[in-house]
Amino acid sequence: DAKTTQPTSMDCAEGRAANLPCNHSTISGNEYVYWYRQIHSQGPQYIIHGLKNNETNEMASLIITEDRKSSTLILPHATLRDTAVYYCIGRAWGQGAQKLVFGQGTRLTINP
Amino acid sequence: NAGVTQTPKFQVLKTGQSMTLQCAQDMNHEYMSWYRQDPGMGLRLIHYSVGAGITDQGEVPNGYNVSRSTTEDFPLRLLSAAPSQTSVYFCASSSLGRVGTGELFFGEGSRLTVL
């Protein structure tokens, strides 16, 4: 699975868009980019995933560069409840490719 | 559906004691895994399984055993607990059959303290 690199921490003002970057320069062609977040000490929660195209759901948007070496998770109107640690991981498909490794993630703080 | 259920939620052990953390899922997921999370750190993969009878090691497998006799259950065994195993343990599961999905579902965590 692709190694991912994220900034350790970020701050964003409430109501503004939060843009969280992730570098995955070694990602292979069959690996999807997944984003999760962990609020306080709860279990991580799925946010969104994508392969090549940009994706949007009710929680966030995912922008993947054309060369797929990096991506950005966008929370369009951040609220205080979005304060969490955000994890980006690469996941390939097939039984032999499921050693899913989470990095340190980005600690996002939404400020009032 | 209950999702991913972990028991116990809290446990205190003495050094050298053994115990099993239970994980059960009712979503018929082939993939199950165990992570540990230490204060201020990210998740580290301990063991994972892609189906009944199939297990493999993650990043930090030492001191832990697993087995997968059924699709639903994936217990994590600590044979001789050490203070370094004090952590929060998360179980996660997902499907493997639908490419492009495969969202990981996490349990609520089990907080283990080894004295």
How would you characterize the overall build of this protein?
The complex is a heterodimer of chains A (112) and B (115). With 112 residues, chain A is mainly β. Helices cover 0% and strands 45% of the residues of chain A. In chain A, strands 1-9-8-3-4 form a five-stranded mixed β-sheet, with no helix packed on it. Chain A has a four-stranded antiparallel β-sheet with strand order 2-7-6-5, with no helix packed on it. In chain B, the strands form two sheets. In chain B, strands 2, 4, 5, 6, 9, 10 and 11 form a seven-stranded mixed β-sheet that branches. Chain B is mostly beta strands and 115 residues long. In chain B, strand 4 (31-37) and strand 5 (43-51) form a beta hairpin. Chain B has no helices and eleven strands. The interface between A and B is medium-sized, with 24 and 30 residues.
Topology:
The complex is a heterodimer of chains A (112) and B (115).
Chain A: E1 9-13, E2 18-23, E3 32-38, E4 45-50, E5 55-56, E6 61-64, E7 70-75, E8 84-91, E9 106-111
Parallel strand pairs in A: 1-9
Antiparallel strand pairs in A: 2-7, 3-4, 3-8, 5-6, 6-7, 8-9
Chain B: E1 4-7, E2 10-13, E3 19-25, E4 31-37, E5 43-51, E6 54-57, E7 64-66, E8 76-78, E9 87-94, E10 105-106, E11 110-114
**SSE order of chain A, as H and E?**
EEEEEEEEE
Largest interface, by Cβ-Cβ below 8 angstroms: which chains and how many residues each?
A: A-B, 24 and 30 residues
Q: Oligomeric status of the shown chains?
A: heterodimer
The number of E-state strands of chain B comes to 11
State the separation between the terminal residues of chain B, measured CA to CA. 36 Å
Coarse structural class of chain A = mainly beta
Task: Please give the count of helices of chain A.
Answer: 0
Spatial extent as radius of gyration of chain A: 13 Å
Order of strands in the sheet with most strands of chain A: 1-9-8-3-4
Helix-strand pattern of chain B: EEEEEEEEEEE
How is the biggest beta sheet of chain B arranged? 7 strands, mixed
**Can you give the helix content of chain A as a percent range?**
under 10%
